[in-house]
């Protein structure tokens, strides 16, 4: 059984339309998929309709990747199997749609001060119907020749601690976990190693996540080193959390491919045990469990 519980469509900063993302996941042999767009669930309906129409053997979980802050650190929390029609999910998505627009204006103002005007309008044009994010600013800066690559845009202007790293509108870790729980979903701390924290501070983050009601950690993200996997498995054990896995796929050729994820240590309790039994026999039906 091939599982991928973290990837992006063009509803946020991925390059593929939701249906094409599903088609690619099938080609990659994925059986259970969660599309976890940044702060939006706009891709789910199209993906799910396409799968149903194809009768494709892929179980799709309604999911999201929420932005938040914990002690001035930008953190991402994935919500798996959320009820996207619940008041909590609707409230959260509406909040973020507005917050991301306002944040884009703030980023634009900061870049203008650095001599790069028109970035908000430019990034919105790049984003089109997609949820606006820093990658759209990176592409705008590249198009205008302010940087030679999107990587450079993040290194100089958009990455952690740079001018475009605007967090003021993000909710707290506790708030997004509460939203996910209220929407009947399973909160998963996304890519803990990506935050580049010391082991001690990462432990404090995981403890705060657990205390807030968090259920699982992303133990394996794409193809990572065995030491990293062991460390994540240890954090799961210490904090009694389940384990999730994902590629964080954004576009072909960038980072990991869909479903191309290293093995999960046997000691870990997979978060997908909640859904995988049903996946074999009832690929497209949502199964509500109690948690
Ligand atoms: P946002 O959701 O607007 O805060 O933007 C964060 C997104 O930017 C991440 O999900 C990545 O897709 C992308 N990103 C973050 N850091 C980098 C980087 N150094 N180079 C390229 N893309 C990045
Ligand atoms: Mn992204
Ligand atoms: Mn993320
Ligand atoms: Mn992601």
Structure summary:
The protein has 291 residues and is an alpha/beta fold. The chain has 10 helices and 7 strands.
Give a quick set of tags describing it.
binds adenosine monophosphate; 291 residues; binds manganese (II) ion; globular; 7 strands; alpha/beta
Describe this structure in words.
The protein has 291 residues and is of the alpha/beta class. The chain is 42% helix and 14% strand. It has helices at 18-27, 44-54, 87-113, 119-127, 134-143, 150-158, 173-182, 199-212, 226-239, 273-281, and strands spanning 3-4, 32-35, 59-70, 73-80, 186-189, 216-221, 242-246. Strands 1-2-3-4-5-6-7 form a seven-stranded mixed beta sheet. Bound molecules: adenosine monophosphate (AMP) and manganese (II) ion (3 copies). One manganese (II) ion binds at residues 8, 13, 38, 250.
């Amino acid at each position: 059984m091939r599982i991928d519980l973290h990837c992006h469509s063009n509803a946020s900063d991925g390059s593929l339309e939701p249906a094409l993302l599903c088609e690619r996941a099938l080609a990659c042999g994925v059986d259970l998929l969660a599309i976890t767009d940044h702060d939006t669930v706009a891709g789910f309906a199209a993906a799910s309709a396409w799968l149903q129409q194809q009768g494709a053997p892929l179980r799709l979980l309604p999911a999201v990747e929420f932005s938040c802050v914990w002690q001035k650190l930008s953190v991402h929390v994935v919500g798996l199997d959320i009820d996207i029609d619940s008041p909590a999910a609707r409230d959260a998505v509406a909040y973020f749609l507005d917050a991301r627009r306002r944040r884009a204006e703030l980023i634009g103002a900061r870049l203008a001060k650095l001599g790069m005007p028109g970035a908000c309008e430019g990034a919105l044009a790049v984003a089109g119907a997609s949820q606006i994010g820093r990658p759209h600013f990176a592409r705008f800066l590249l198009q205008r020749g302010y940087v030679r690559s999107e990587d450079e845009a993040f290194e100089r202007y958009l990455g952690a601690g740079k001018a475009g790293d605007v967090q003021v509108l993000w909710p707290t870790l506790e708030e997004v976990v509460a939203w996910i729980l209220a929407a009947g979903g399973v909160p998963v701390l996304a890519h803990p190693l990506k935050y580049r924290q010391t082991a001690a501070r990462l432990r404090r983050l995981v403890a705060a996540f657990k205390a807030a009601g968090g259920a699982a950690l992303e133990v394996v993200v794409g193809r990572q080193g065995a030491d990293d996997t062991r460390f994540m498995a240890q954090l799961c054990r210490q904090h009694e959390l389940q384990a999730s896995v994902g590629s964080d796929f954004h576009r072909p050729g960038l980072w990991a491919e869909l479903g191309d994820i290293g093995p999960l240590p046997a000691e870990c309790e997979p978060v997908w045990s909640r859904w995988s039994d049903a996946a074999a026999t009832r690929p497209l039906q949502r199964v509500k469990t109690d948690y």
